[in-house]
Amino acid sequence: MNDRILILYGSVTGNSEIAAQRTQRALRERGYDPVLEDMTHVKAPLLLDFGTVLVVTSTYGEGEPPDGCEALHEAVVKDESFQLNGQRFAVLALGDTGYEFFCQCGRDYDTALERAGGHRLCARVDCDIDFDDEHEAWTAAVLDALTHERAGAA
Question: Smallest Cα–Cα separation from 95: which of 105, 87, 85?
Answer without folding.
Answer: 105
